[in-house]
Amino acid sequence: MRVLKSILVPAALAALLAACGGSERVEDYVPTKLVAFGDELSVINSDGSKYGVNALKTNSTELDCATYPVWPQVVASGFGLVFPQCNSSGVLTTSAEMKAVAGAKVADVVSAVGAYQASTGFSRTTLVTLMAGQNDILEAYASWVAGTLTRDQAKAQVAALGRTLGTLVNTITASGSGGRVLYATPAHLGYSPFAASEVASSGSEDRRTMLKELTTSFVEAMRLAVANDGQYAALITGDELTVSMSDNTRLASYSLTNNTDVACTVTPLTSCTTATLVSGAASSGTTYLWAGAQVPGPNWQSRVGSAALNRARNNPF
Fold first, then answer.
1. Which CATH number does the domain housing residue 131 bear?
2. Taking the model in full, what pTM does it have?
3. Region of 21 on the Ramachandran plot (φ > 0 left; ψ -120 to 50 alpha; else beta)
4. Among 89, 121, 181, 292, which one has the highest count of C-beta atoms within 10 angstroms of its own C-beta?
5. What is the C-alpha to C-alpha distance for residues 113 and 119, in angstroms, rounded to an integer?
6. Structural domain includes residue 169
């Protein structure tokens, strides 16, 4: 049986993920191109691999990159757009560009967007997906653990970077003359297996608390910085989705069996496939929230992507 390429977002969840929108749509928005910026949570590599669970073709070791899409891929597919990294037949016209880079921080994304604006530019029919911040949060957390930043300094550092990313959204849209942006908040690291391991190794619950505070500081600052009335940019709250999927009373509603452990048994995560999962993941990976200690799996990716696609179709872009 072929694995579903996308996991639909319940109507109630769509409201949770959506930011308030603007006026009603006058005509359907039809992008001619999609450009993805961000970190490993958005990446498709040249061989079709992703940072998470990679599907395999039936009775094969060959990757099936169309299954278990990353969230920008869900959006692109919904508009009939194709990334060259996932065009194995070579017969489709590629109309999506992958500018996300594993390990990227906010400063790297700002540079990538600036370079793209200078060389190509954005128009109304350019749809941009943007997610970053996770690596900045982890960097600030590591500095706090090491004692080089105080708690308040670490939170201020990520808040400043959140504002920078929010301002970048405004730069891309350029008061309506630029691209349209789907900007997503990162997964909430306070609920990650990494947070649990930090508590276990230190014996202090404050480690998890700090990861929660840093994620919240980044996300709140980013959201406040975006001049968004729904006409040019739309928010997808990946952090809130993480919190919701981490609620044990909601496991069944998300088709999950595990929201605390990692599904992948190998590193790097680009090598993780449906053949290298823990026994509880049932060779699919969609029943586990987390692929790796800091990286959510295809269930989360698909829901973020479906929510983003819904916003692009319904916002008055």
1. 3.40.50.1110
2. 0.91
3. beta
4. 181
5. 10
6. yes
pLDDT score of 21: 46
Q: How far is CA 35 from CA 80, 131, 147, in A?
A: 14, 12, 38
CB 291 within 8 A of CB 263: yes
Model confidence at 15, in pLDDT bands (50, 70, 90)?
very low
Parent domain of 263 = 27-314
- DSSP strand E in the chain: where? 33-38, 96-98, 126-131, 180-184, 233-236, 258-262, 288-290
Question: Is 14 domain-assigned?
Answer: no
Distance from C-alpha of 50 to C-alpha of 65, rounded to nearest angstrom: 8
The answer to whether position 13 is within a domain reads no
- Does residue 9 lie within any of the structural domains? no
Around 215, how many Cα atoms within 13 Å sit in the side-chain half-sphere? 23
pLDDT digits (tens, 9 = 90+) for 160-215: 999 999 999 999 998 678 899 999 999 999 999 999 999 999 999 999 999 999 99
Q: What is the pLDDT of residue 186?
A: 98
Q: Count H helices, E strands: the chain? A: 9, 7
